[in-house]
Amino acid sequence: MREAYHEQLQDLAGELATMCDMAATAMEKATRSLLDVDLGLAEEVIGDDVKVDEERARSEEHALALLALQSPVATDLRIVITTLHAAESLERMGDLAQHVAKATRRRHPQPVLPDQVRPYFAEMGRVAVHLARRAEEVIRTKDIDLARQLEDEDDAMDDLHRHLFSVLMDKEWPHGTAAAVDVTLLGRFYERFADHAVSVARRMVFVVTGKMPGSEDQH
């Protein structure tokens, strides 16, 4: 009985890792659709988002069943709690990738991005996918040193976002209001995607140590 219980706990981590992989793949494809003005790829991302939602529902169902039937304590309880919180972040990451793909679809056949900002989004997409893949590795290995590294790696996304905003605020911006709105929203989608990936990694630190990193600074 206990062996089956611990297998179920391991399954929860596997489900989170699967969701992380799905979110990373979605953002990778969404970025390509954005840069290449690829409507077919955008539609693929939009259609596949339901699979992330279904995976979240499945993982939450399993976590709640363990909570109700096994009354976990200590590390086991932290795993269940983390699953419930992290699954929400991972579903949101999938939603953000879908938002990027929907921007491509909305403006098609015209490109969403002016050439001036394309390099920013190519790099933001690369960083976002990298962070999601790293978070997946943290889930699978429970490597808290790697988890803490993600916070530093997220600085690259924050820097890109700040630089992008400075371009938008330049009085010489030549691309009009609609393009500025699109670029602002898209930049925010990538920034939030990265933030959620870091949040997932932070919760794995909580699983291992019982403390959220930097919790004394949280408000």
From TrEMBL:
All residue ranges annotated as the PhoU domain in the record: 17-103, 122-203
A Pfam family per the record: PhoU
GO BP: intracellular phosphate ion homeostasis; negative regulation of phosphate metabolic process; phosphate ion transport
Cross-referenced InterPro entries: PhoU (IPR028366), PhoU-like_sf (IPR038078), PhoU_dom (IPR026022)
Cell compartments where the protein resides: Cytoplasm
Cellular component, GO, one term: cytoplasm
Keywords of the record: Cytoplasm, Phosphate transport, Transport
Complexes and interactors: Homodimer.
Protein family according to the UniProt entry: Belongs to the PhoU family.
Role summary: Plays a role in the regulation of phosphate uptake.
Identification of the protein by name: Phosphate-specific transport system accessory protein PhoU
Organism: Streptoalloteichus hindustanus
